[in-house]
């Protein structure tokens, strides 16, 4: 997971390359817009969606609050990181572009930096 850190936060990296949809159809209906993610973002969230990273019992409201607390992230345990990663991943189901915002707003960066710290602590 931590190998994605330099890839997701390289200079000039854009998580959402474009948006599709939002067009009026012949029947008068309008399609909903959706993001076209950079392949690195898709790869990262496929990895984050593996069973070993998911918290099936997470509570979205609690996870969102945890994610906004930078001090909590700095000391987060592995289970807490999994809870927050699950929120970052599953939020896309309810809000198109959510995954991109999680990257753009630095949430994923902070989670991966903390994961790096945990890895370093285990090596000692």
What shape does the CA trace take? globular
Tell me the major beta sheet.
2 strands, antiparallel
Q: Number of helical segments?
A: 7
Helix content: 40-55%
Spatial arrangement of strands, main beta sheet: 1-2
The radius of gyration over CA amounts to 16 Å
Query: Which class do the helix and strand fractions yield?
Result: mainly alpha
Mean pLDDT: 95
Describe this structure in words.
21% of the residues are buried. The chain is globular, with a radius of gyration of 16 Å. With 124 residues, it is mainly α. Helix content is 52%, strand content 7%. The protein has 7 helices and 2 strands; from the N terminus they run H-E-E-H-H-H-H-H-H.
Quick structural summary:
By secondary structure, the chain is mainly alpha-helical.
Feature tags:
mainly alpha; two-stranded antiparallel sheet; globular; 124 residues; single chain
Topology:
Elements: H1 5-8, E1 16-20, E2 34-37, H2 39-48, H3 60-68, H4 70-74, H5 78-90, H6 98-104, H7 107-123
Antiparallel strand pairs: 1-2
Helix pairs in contact: 3-5, 5-7
